[in-house]
Amino acid sequence: MKRSLFALMSVAMLLLSCSEKEGSTKKSTVSIEATYAKGNFQPGDAISVYRGTNAAVFQAKTVSSATSAVFEGKIPTSGTGRLVAVYPALEGNTCILSLKEQKMGEDYHYANAVSPTPSFSAPLKMSFLPITGKGIVEIENVSGMQLKLSSLSVEGGKLFYSLCDFTASSSKNTYSDAEIDVETDNLTLALNQKVQIPFYLFPGEVASSKASVTLNATDDSGKVYRIVARESFSRPKVGEESKITVQLTDEMLDDSPRDYTIVYPKSLTGAALEGIQAIPALIRTKTGLTVPCVSDDTAESEYEILFGTTNREASKSVSCPDNAYIIKSMGKKLVVNGSSADQLIASLYGLERNIISNSNYFSEGRIRLSSGIEIKNETGEVLAMRHMVKNLYDFTIKESHLKTITGTSPVTVAQGACTDGKYGYYAFRNSAETKCVLYKYNLSGHTKVSEMELDLADCDGYSHVNDMVYEPSSDLIYISAWSNTKGGVKVMLCVKASTMTQVASVKNLTHSPTAIGYNPTTKVFMSRSGANVYLSGAGFTSSSCVNTAYEKYGYTNQGAGADDLYCYFPVNNGTNSQLLTFDWTGKQLWNIQINNSIESESLFVVGEKYYWWCYGSSSGRLYLLTPVMKFTPNFKGGWSDIESPALK
Question: Can you give the pTM of this predicted structure?
Answer without folding.
Answer: 0.64
